[in-house]
Amino acid sequence: MTMRVVLAEDSMLLREGLVRLLEEAGATVLAAVGDGAALVEVVAEHRPEVAVVDVRMPPSFTDEGLRAALEIRRQYPEIGILVLSQYVEESYATDLLEAGGGVGYLLKDRVSKLADLSDALTRVAAGGTVLDPEVVSALLTRRRRRDPLAELSPREREVLELMAQGRTNTAIGRLMVITQGAVEKHISSIFTKLGLPPSSDDHRRVMAVLTWLEG
After folding, report:
1. What is the C-alpha to C-alpha distance for residues 22 and 1, in angstroms, rounded to an integer?
2. Which tens digit of pLDDT belongs to each residue from 153-211?
3. d(CA 43, CA 41)
4. Residues in CB range of 168: below 8 A, 6 or more apart
5. How many CA atoms lie within 13 A of 132 on its CB side?
Protein backbone atom coordinates (compact mmCIF):
# COMPACT_ATOMS: atom_id res chain seq x y z
CA MET A 1 0.00 0.00 0.00
CA THR A 2 1.45 3.37 -1.04
CA MET A 3 2.44 5.72 1.78
CA ARG A 4 0.22 8.82 1.81
CA VAL A 5 2.00 12.00 2.94
CA VAL A 6 1.58 15.77 3.07
CA LEU A 7 4.53 18.16 2.99
CA ALA A 8 5.24 21.62 4.39
CA GLU A 9 8.32 23.50 3.13
CA ASP A 10 8.48 27.26 2.59
CA SER A 11 11.09 27.20 -0.20
CA MET A 12 9.30 26.53 -3.48
CA LEU A 13 12.35 24.95 -5.14
CA LEU A 14 13.11 22.73 -2.18
CA ARG A 15 9.42 21.85 -1.84
CA GLU A 16 9.27 20.67 -5.45
CA GLY A 17 12.48 18.71 -4.99
CA LEU A 18 11.15 17.02 -1.85
CA VAL A 19 7.93 16.09 -3.63
CA ARG A 20 9.95 14.29 -6.30
CA LEU A 21 12.13 12.59 -3.69
CA LEU A 22 9.13 11.46 -1.66
CA GLU A 23 7.46 10.04 -4.76
CA GLU A 24 10.67 8.27 -5.77
CA ALA A 25 10.79 6.84 -2.23
CA GLY A 26 7.36 5.25 -2.82
CA ALA A 27 5.09 7.87 -1.26
CA THR A 28 2.04 9.63 -2.67
CA VAL A 29 2.19 13.35 -1.89
CA LEU A 30 -1.39 14.48 -1.33
CA ALA A 31 -0.52 18.15 -0.75
CA ALA A 32 2.58 20.36 -0.55
CA VAL A 33 2.22 23.70 1.25
CA GLY A 34 4.43 26.58 2.36
CA ASP A 35 3.59 27.22 6.02
CA GLY A 36 2.54 25.54 9.25
CA ALA A 37 -1.07 26.73 9.30
CA ALA A 38 -1.67 25.35 5.81
CA LEU A 39 -0.09 22.06 6.90
CA VAL A 40 -2.59 21.63 9.72
CA GLU A 41 -5.42 22.32 7.23
CA VAL A 42 -4.29 19.76 4.64
CA VAL A 43 -3.73 17.16 7.34
CA ALA A 44 -7.33 17.65 8.47
CA GLU A 45 -8.49 17.35 4.86
CA HIS A 46 -6.45 14.33 3.72
CA ARG A 47 -5.60 12.43 6.93
CA PRO A 48 -2.26 11.10 5.60
CA GLU A 49 -0.11 8.45 7.21
CA VAL A 50 2.77 10.92 7.64
CA ALA A 51 3.18 14.72 7.71
CA VAL A 52 6.62 15.89 6.57
CA VAL A 53 7.51 19.36 7.83
CA ASP A 54 10.39 21.83 8.01
CA VAL A 55 11.10 23.40 11.42
CA ARG A 56 11.58 27.03 10.42
CA MET A 57 8.73 28.47 8.40
CA PRO A 58 6.92 31.78 7.85
CA PRO A 59 6.21 34.25 9.28
CA SER A 60 9.01 34.37 11.88
CA PHE A 61 11.12 31.46 10.59
CA THR A 62 11.71 30.11 14.10
CA ASP A 63 9.59 27.15 15.16
CA GLU A 64 6.33 27.45 13.19
CA GLY A 65 6.82 24.05 11.58
CA LEU A 66 7.46 22.36 14.89
CA ARG A 67 4.43 23.99 16.50
CA ALA A 68 2.29 22.82 13.58
CA ALA A 69 3.68 19.31 14.00
CA LEU A 70 2.84 19.29 17.71
CA GLU A 71 -0.67 20.57 16.95
CA ILE A 72 -1.15 17.75 14.45
CA ARG A 73 0.05 15.27 17.05
CA ARG A 74 -2.45 16.69 19.55
CA GLN A 75 -5.39 16.48 17.12
CA TYR A 76 -4.41 13.34 15.19
CA PRO A 77 -2.08 11.18 17.32
CA GLU A 78 -2.25 8.37 14.77
CA ILE A 79 -0.48 10.45 12.09
CA GLY A 80 3.30 10.14 11.93
CA ILE A 81 5.45 13.28 11.98
CA LEU A 82 8.74 13.51 10.08
CA VAL A 83 10.56 16.79 10.76
CA LEU A 84 13.29 17.98 8.41
CA SER A 85 15.84 20.58 9.40
CA GLN A 86 18.94 22.18 7.96
CA TYR A 87 20.63 22.05 11.36
CA VAL A 88 20.57 20.06 14.59
CA GLU A 89 18.24 22.03 16.85
CA GLU A 90 18.40 20.26 20.20
CA SER A 91 15.44 21.88 21.96
CA TYR A 92 13.16 21.24 18.98
CA ALA A 93 14.22 17.60 18.79
CA THR A 94 13.51 17.20 22.50
CA ASP A 95 10.04 18.77 22.15
CA LEU A 96 9.29 16.41 19.29
CA LEU A 97 10.40 13.31 21.17
CA GLU A 98 8.25 14.26 24.14
CA ALA A 99 5.23 14.05 21.83
CA GLY A 100 5.54 10.25 21.82
CA GLY A 101 6.14 7.60 19.14
CA GLY A 102 5.57 7.95 15.43
CA VAL A 103 8.02 10.83 15.06
CA GLY A 104 11.25 11.43 13.19
CA TYR A 105 13.89 14.17 12.96
CA LEU A 106 16.23 14.11 9.98
CA LEU A 107 18.70 16.60 8.59
CA LYS A 108 17.83 17.68 5.07
CA ASP A 109 21.14 16.35 3.75
CA ARG A 110 20.04 12.87 4.83
CA VAL A 111 16.83 12.80 2.77
CA SER A 112 18.77 12.77 -0.49
CA LYS A 113 19.30 9.04 0.14
CA LEU A 114 16.10 7.39 -1.04
CA ALA A 115 16.60 4.25 1.04
CA ASP A 116 16.96 6.32 4.24
CA LEU A 117 13.92 8.44 3.40
CA SER A 118 11.74 5.44 2.55
CA ASP A 119 12.80 3.65 5.73
CA ALA A 120 12.10 6.75 7.85
CA LEU A 121 8.60 7.15 6.41
CA THR A 122 7.77 3.50 7.00
CA ARG A 123 9.04 3.49 10.58
CA VAL A 124 7.35 6.75 11.54
CA ALA A 125 4.03 5.63 10.02
CA ALA A 126 4.28 2.42 12.05
CA GLY A 127 4.68 4.37 15.30
CA GLY A 128 8.47 4.15 15.52
CA THR A 129 11.05 6.86 16.14
CA VAL A 130 13.67 7.95 13.62
CA LEU A 131 16.54 10.23 14.58
CA ASP A 132 19.43 11.42 12.46
CA PRO A 133 22.74 10.17 13.95
CA GLU A 134 23.91 13.77 14.35
CA VAL A 135 20.76 14.59 16.30
CA VAL A 136 21.33 11.63 18.64
CA SER A 137 24.92 12.73 19.21
CA ALA A 138 23.85 16.31 19.97
CA LEU A 139 21.16 15.20 22.43
CA LEU A 140 23.57 12.92 24.29
CA THR A 141 26.15 15.69 24.46
CA ARG A 142 23.54 18.12 25.73
CA ARG A 143 22.42 15.68 28.44
CA ARG A 144 26.01 15.16 29.62
CA ARG A 145 26.64 18.90 29.51
CA ARG A 146 23.65 19.95 31.57
CA ASP A 147 22.21 17.99 34.47
CA PRO A 148 19.74 20.40 36.15
CA LEU A 149 19.59 18.28 39.30
CA ALA A 150 23.31 18.80 39.82
CA GLU A 151 22.62 22.46 40.62
CA LEU A 152 20.39 21.61 43.58
CA SER A 153 21.75 21.73 47.12
CA PRO A 154 21.49 18.56 49.26
CA ARG A 155 18.61 20.16 51.16
CA GLU A 156 16.78 21.02 47.93
CA ARG A 157 17.29 17.49 46.62
CA GLU A 158 15.75 16.14 49.80
CA VAL A 159 12.75 18.45 49.40
CA LEU A 160 12.33 17.43 45.74
CA GLU A 161 12.56 13.74 46.63
CA LEU A 162 9.75 14.18 49.17
CA MET A 163 7.73 16.09 46.56
CA ALA A 164 8.19 13.14 44.21
CA GLN A 165 6.74 10.90 46.93
CA GLY A 166 3.58 13.03 46.86
CA ARG A 167 4.20 14.82 50.17
CA THR A 168 2.53 18.16 50.84
CA ASN A 169 4.52 21.19 52.01
CA THR A 170 3.24 20.60 55.54
CA ALA A 171 4.37 16.98 55.50
CA ILE A 172 7.77 17.95 54.06
CA GLY A 173 8.27 20.51 56.83
CA ARG A 174 7.34 17.97 59.49
CA LEU A 175 9.65 15.27 58.12
CA MET A 176 12.58 17.65 57.66
CA VAL A 177 11.84 19.52 60.89
CA ILE A 178 11.76 22.92 59.17
CA THR A 179 9.13 25.66 58.95
CA GLN A 180 6.51 25.99 56.24
CA GLY A 181 8.25 29.15 55.06
CA ALA A 182 11.55 27.29 54.72
CA VAL A 183 9.87 24.59 52.63
CA GLU A 184 8.36 27.19 50.33
CA LYS A 185 11.73 28.92 50.00
CA HIS A 186 13.42 25.64 49.03
CA ILE A 187 10.70 24.87 46.48
CA SER A 188 10.98 28.33 44.93
CA SER A 189 14.73 27.83 44.60
CA ILE A 190 14.18 24.40 43.03
CA PHE A 191 11.85 25.88 40.41
CA THR A 192 14.41 28.57 39.58
CA LYS A 193 17.34 26.16 39.25
CA LEU A 194 15.31 23.74 37.11
CA GLY A 195 14.28 26.56 34.77
CA LEU A 196 10.58 26.44 35.63
CA PRO A 197 9.26 30.04 35.58
CA PRO A 198 5.70 30.81 36.66
CA SER A 199 3.26 29.67 33.95
CA SER A 200 -0.48 29.25 33.59
CA ASP A 201 0.08 26.33 31.20
CA ASP A 202 2.32 24.03 33.23
CA HIS A 203 2.11 22.77 36.78
CA ARG A 204 5.61 23.54 38.05
CA ARG A 205 5.45 21.05 40.91
CA VAL A 206 4.64 18.23 38.50
CA MET A 207 7.35 19.35 36.06
CA ALA A 208 9.93 19.44 38.86
CA VAL A 209 8.97 15.92 39.97
CA LEU A 210 9.24 14.67 36.37
CA THR A 211 12.74 16.12 36.16
CA TRP A 212 13.65 14.30 39.38
CA LEU A 213 12.27 10.99 38.10
CA GLU A 214 14.08 11.34 34.77
CA GLY A 215 17.31 12.02 36.63
Report:
1. 15
2. 899 989 998 988 888 999 999 999 999 999 999 999 999 888 887 765 557 888 888 88
3. 5
4. none
5. 22
